[in-house]
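Troubleshooting log. The previous structure file for this entry was overwritten by mistake, so regenerating from the original sequence record. Sequence copied from the archived sheet and checked twice against the printout by T.R.
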Amino acid sequence: MLTQLTVSNYAIAERVELQFGTGMTALTGETGAGKSIVLDALGLAMGGRADAGTVRHGAKRADITATFDVSGISEALQWLESHELDDESDCILRRVISKDGRSRAYINGQPCPLGHLKDLGGLLMDIHSQHQHQSLLRKETHRKLVDEFAGAEDLASQTREAWKSWNQIRGKLAERQQNAEESEARLQLLRYQVEELDRLALESSEQKQLEQEQEQLSQADAIMHSSHQAALLCTEDETSAAGLVRQALQQLEQLPVAIPALADTIQMLNEAQIQISEAGDNLRHFVDDYEADPACLADVEERLSAIYQMARKHRINPEELPEFHERLSAELAELDGGEGSLEKLEAELEIQRKSFDKLAGELSEARAKAALELDQRIASELVQLSMPAVQFITQLHRNSQDEPAPHGLEEVEFLVSANAGQPARPLAKVASGGELSRISLAIQVVVAQTSTTPTLIFDEVDVGIGGGTAEVVGKLLRSLGDNGQVICVTHLPQVAAQCHQHLFVSKFTRQEATFSKIESLDDKGRISEVARMLGGVDMTEHTIAHATEMFSKGQATHH
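Regenerated output below.
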């Protein structure tokens, strides 16, 4: 819900601050006073096209800020959260327009693309006017309204997701079919390569172990000689390490007196003698058991040669072969009867199509049922709005050959026949500005209970009507306001007399400059404005009395 609008240096408005509440708000005033400022400013806050000429003369920039309470608007809250722009329950849309025509957009104080204002603004407001933001001229709006009226938003969402899954599988299948010859050649190559790698059967750490083994076997003589010499030096020679340690111990043991400070040293020499003896034993066992087998060396080198040759063939490092083998095997499984095979893709496509058809069929039934009721109820409202000859039709046009689409199996479009005997045509091509506003009003009255747009704005919905019909328009707008928030620009006292809040727009001149002023009227001011709308500038007692009666009746009717 729109709670506040602040406009600075826009058109002839130097500074305007307006507070809005629930219900119906009417904007009235003399022609040219600046009533369009509010609606145009809101349009800019929704991402509308900016014009440098709208910046007030002498100012550097125009600044427009619209504040909304979004605590009860789940779609807006989700959008804000997904874009990391959420800020508790308030949402502030801001547009700054420089005098050179450039503009900047902000959401909750954060700079953002202009498209973000349009996307979020569409969830917060819907402007129905003879100018831009006429969402009723777009087919997607027709479909959205019908789905909301049918209570089928979740079903429409599920249908859209089912289409995405089906379309993704269809794309994969088309790619496979288009590249069938290439795929078959690739399949044959993969089979050959994987069979070769299967025969090699290389394990992940095998190459490293073989290279270590090859190095040992190729240096067998040097290893035997060095190990034998090491064994002699440890224990078997007169000047062996064990013998020298033993002599050192004997020298210390023959000391004339015990020296406590050498006790640890004697202990270390004893341990060293034991460890040297064990090392010598280990070396003798190693020399006795070591086999320098030329045949084993030949086998190892043959195995390594096969590994290196396979790596060169595939132009990779030898250590990459196991992972390469695994990757080719997975690709082969994918193409040869796996999830990526033509047969599997065709089967999966059929499954996804059945899922889509089931959901889309249910959605089509819900739309067809809702369309009939919607047409009947809108027709009733149009009669009240003095448009009895207008025929309103919600057309459900099936896709060619029932081709799946994100929105289901049909296009939804509102058609209108303005006169008896004339064929129904798209709303955008038939309705004039005034007719469009009243048709829009009739539609909104009907779908008000299901629409997710919280703020509805109507610009001069009373063009071309008067008398009793004008009073009906006022009642309809008031009823819409009872369920949400309605802001309307009107020239008819019958409409203005029924609003919850009345804003009066005027202009004045000061120091050869023109200014626009917007003020909220109390009951006395409202009666005076209704009288002005009834009788012009010169108001008589009769005019005042008539205005008082109209105002009292307009307010009492709804209590």
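The radius of gyration is 44 Å. Archived copy saved in two places this time.
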